[in-house]
Structures are given as structure tokens and as C-alpha cells.
């Protein structure tokens, strides 16, 4: 529409410039309808056709557009907008021009729920899409033991494992590229799979209702509700794509199916809004649905039927399946992968936002490890922070979740190269010594504390081992903890050097602008067979009560306004502490040297005191170790080809121990197991003949430990169990006798 010729006569609906009373920006020419501001096209000039056949082309060329209609507006409008009501059936806002705003419910008989899944397409009986839908329906009907149609109707979704549908030979003949289509075009493929299930569930419910109708009827005493229409059914595909890293996301992966594994680090508040509203024409009884956006709820102004001329009196239908309430929730996923080594001091682990909708809302909790399959999308980060105006070109990837699996039910996958390296490590004559020396190789000596940390990394869960390292500053405790944080399969790292800020990261907290985002702390992130690495735990005085509760009961309590919540947290703790006076005083007790409450110290199974004693032999060995590291003699490389796969005849820590214990038990039950030679520190010590020992990189240690935790389940023999029991009883008896002697001496001294 062009500007009216004159402003006299009847009042025009066009308004020029800003509206009366000022306010926000208005297009140069616009008109209002139902509270909307609609641009009218501006002051366009007639084209060459209107100028006449003899007019010059240069004279007929319109001047450059200005204002609202300029090619690149600062307000983000990159297209010239014409008047709306003459072109589309319903007005579409500029930012929603590519979306369908209203649909007519005209489902074909072959697909009763067609318009729930395909808003624009028209159903054609002989098309490839119709043949695929029929083939998928036949697959569902051939496998009633895999798909519970009654439960699918009640829940509104169903899980679709890849093994159940990919190997169907009859379906392959009609749809051979099912897996490729699901990966490259996930939305359309999932709609095809869902509309087929909708038809099968509808036919099954009709057969069931016909059977029940003959038996159940409404009476004065009992009311039997009539059968309702089936709502939209969502498909949840599983195991169609391998788990990938977020670092491998590229532009060609947008709008494709993507799978990522991680730990839920934060959960947002669910939001609910009406997405579609269905209306019925009071004249022809035709049904149509309109998309609802924002606070303004549009209503139909014209019936979708061509023969009907109704323009008002449309009745809203609340019970219609086309009236849908959209539930939405945003969670943040912290990536967990065996191929990633994270330096927690300088680099944060990879994170990705995941959008949950419909039945997936509130299906995860903080600290849970999950595998998310969804469609990869991009969103604009908003205005440029540096300039404060315009829109930034930075885009952030997020995932629209299609299915969520618990990671505990999905095993880790190892490549052939990983399995070969693991077999080479296991074929080493002293593999345990190799692993201990590869853990924090910068720290010379202290093999026994490093062995304890390695055994704690091999364990986890309910039977986890808590280790505490106490010693002088600069002895290498932080290096050992950093190496443990890099080698653990699932863990978190908190340093007490940052004071109160680190203490807040220990337990769950609320964050965000309105404090509506629940963040998982380090204890919950490392829960369930994970490890929480705490550096300088003595400086976390404000959170030692939370740590004590977690180690004692495996739970964390969090008071809320008017409520009280409890979170499960069962991590294994590997911590370090520094002496209060800067250097460990051997003349004082352990509790007098460190700032830790006695009840918390009792929860640690292994406590090691690392002292920096002056020793000429140790200093010479340390100097040679540092020179060898910088010279490259002890490089962090993979195991060389000389480690052939052969039967293991090792001199590791376990060889001969329980056989000797069994022989001692047979010979004499009174021999003390403490008198035997169990000098593990000397067995793990790096000797001169181990100069050519190729140390393992952290990523290989991480994969070896993950493989051992997943596939190895050791069992103790009866002789080994009795030997451990004897050892524990002797330790306990020695402690009781030592305490009695000390009490007796104190009484004599006081007397």
C-alpha cells in the first residue's frame, strides 16, 4: 500500500511518523489492528511498469529506501516489509516470518494426527513419505512386545532403541536410509516416526474402546467418561549416534542429531506457557489452531474453510489435542569424556546448555551423569558488550534434547588402539610400579602416598577410599592432587587457596539473577563412583560441616524457604592439608598440626605425613630425577612396541603375599603377619635399572583406570580375607596396647 493522495475526506487508518504522545519507534507509515503495529510499506515509488513504456529506466528507478525500509536497519530488520493482511492469511511478526502461525485441522483418514506433526506439508497417498509411514506402522504392529500402546498413550512418548528398528529387514526395503535421515534431518524423521505411532495407538485404542463400550456404560451410580482424543506423541531415539566431544562442533553439524555425555552442573526453573490454542467455528464447526506468543493471545479473524465467511464467534477448545501447553527447562551439562584432560586450575571443563521440553522437564537432577541425544542449534548471545549497541555476531551452540539416558546404564566405549595400550600395560612385569611412577612424575619419591591415591582412583562408590596427605609446603602434595584430578573418570577439584569463593563451590547453591538456578557443588559433581579432590582442606573451615555430613551419611542437607531438601552425594575424597605453623612439628600430635576437626579426620581411611627431612642421598637422587625429566629420559610417551602381549609374570605388590600368608597360617597360627617383610615403599621405588622406564601420559592412565573399573571385579579368597582380618586385629590391638602404656606412664609421672 502507498501513501494516500490526500488527508482530507474520510479519516485514514494510516498514521505518519511517531504516534501521538511519542514513545517507541514506529514505521514511517503504519496502521494498527488488534493492538499490533503493522508497517504499510513506506513511501515507495512506482516501478518501471507504472511509469509507462516510454519512460527512462534511470528516471523510473526508485530512490534508496529510508527509515524502516532501508536494506540494513540498525534494529535488525533486514527485509522490506509490505502490508500484511493482503498477502498471508494471518499476520506474521517479522521475527516469526518463517514459522507457521495458524493451521486448519484437516487430517486425512490415513493419518488422523497429520497436522500435529506436519504443519505445512500436504498428505499425498502415493508419496515416499506416506509409504515410509505405512512401513513404520507395520514395524510397530509386528513388535507389540517392544511397544506398549496403552502406556504410550498415557505417557505421550515412547523410547526407540536403534537395535530394535535398524535391523528390521522389511522396513529396510522401504526406508534403507533411516539412520542417515535421522542423523541429518532429525526433526522431520522423528515426526515421521511419531505420526506412525500416533496412528497405531489410535487404532489400538479404538479397538479397545469398542470392546469396553459393550461392557461399560454410564449409570446413576457410576460415570464412565467418553474416550478422549489422543494428544501428540513424542519419539525418544536412543543409540543412533555415537557420543562426541563438544570441541568437534562445526557449522555443518547445526540442525543434525548430536550426542554428548556429561554431568548436570546446574538446573534452571521450569517455565510453562501456552504454545497453541485451538478454536472452533460456530458456523461450520471447523477447527483451527493458532500459535500463541507473548502476553497477547491472538484469535482467528477468518474461518479456514473456503465456503465459510465467518469472521467472529470462534469458540476456544481447551480439551483439544491441538491446544498445547509448552513446558521448558534449561540445564547445563559439564562434559565428561575419557579423551579430555582438564587442568582445573587454568581450564574449565567443556559445558553445553541443554533445552528440555514436554516430558523431559524435571527428569534430571544436579550431579547426575547422563547421555543427551538432541538437535544441535545456535543462538545469538545478544547485544555486543563492548559497544553496547547493535547485535553481536557471536553464536553459542545448545542442544534441544530428544532423549536422555542414564550414563550408568551405558558403558564406556574403547577403541582398538586403547585396548592395545591397555593390554601392553597389563603385560608389563611390574605394571603397578609403572602406574605409580606415572602418577605425578614431577614429585620424586613418596611412592606409598601415590600408590594410595592410585588405589583410591581404582575404587569408588560405596566402598571408596578417602586419602589425606599432610606435609610441609612445597613437597608436592598439590601436584599429586592435580594428577589425580586429571586421571579420575569422574571428579571435581576445589582449591582452598581461594578462600570463601572455593568454599561456596563445595556444596549445592542457588545462582542466577533471581536465584532460581540450582548449581551442583563439587561434592555432588563427583558423586556416584567419583572423586572429589580438595587441595588445602584445612582452609575450608566454613564448609567442613558439609564435608563431614557428606562423608558420614552420604547426603547433603540444604534448607529452603518453607522446605528442606536432601541430596545424595557419595564421592571418594582425596585431600591435602598444610601445617598451621608452616612446617610440620613432629613433637606435636597430628590434630595439633592441622586445622581439621577430629570427627572429620576420623573419616579418612589413609593419612600420610610427608616430611621434608634433610638427606644427602635423597638430595642427590632428587637432582638426578629433575635432570632426567628435563633431558627427556623419562618422557611421557605411550608404551613402546617392545612391551609384547605375553602372560604376566610380575613382581608387583600382590605376588606371593597371600601365598606366604597361607603357608604361615598352615605352619603356625601364632606368627605375626606384621613381622613379615611388606616394605611396599621399597618395591615401588625408582631404581637405577628403571632409567629407561617409559612413563604413561595422563590420558592413558585415565583410560586404563576407567577400563579396570568397568570390566574388572576382583574377588578375595578365604585365605586373603583371613590374612587381612588378622592384620587389622593386630593393628587395633597394637593401638590399644600403646594407648594403655601411654596412660600408665602419664599416671606414674603425675604420681
TrEMBL record:
InterPro entries: MCM (IPR031327), MCM8_N (IPR058767), MCM_dom (IPR001208), MCM_OB (IPR033762), NA-bd_OB-fold (IPR012340), P-loop_NTPase (IPR027417). PROSITE patterns: MCM_2. Residues 1-79 are annotated as: Disordered. Residues 46-57 have a biased composition (Low complexity). GO terms for molecular function: ATP binding; single-stranded DNA binding; single-stranded DNA helicase activity. It comes from the Eukaryota. Keywords: ATP-binding, DNA-binding, Nucleotide-binding. Residues 431-626 form the MCM C-terminal AAA(+) ATPase domain. GO terms for cellular component: MCM complex; nucleus. Belongs to the MCM family. This is DNA replication licensing factor REC. It comes from Drosophila madeirensis (Fruit fly).
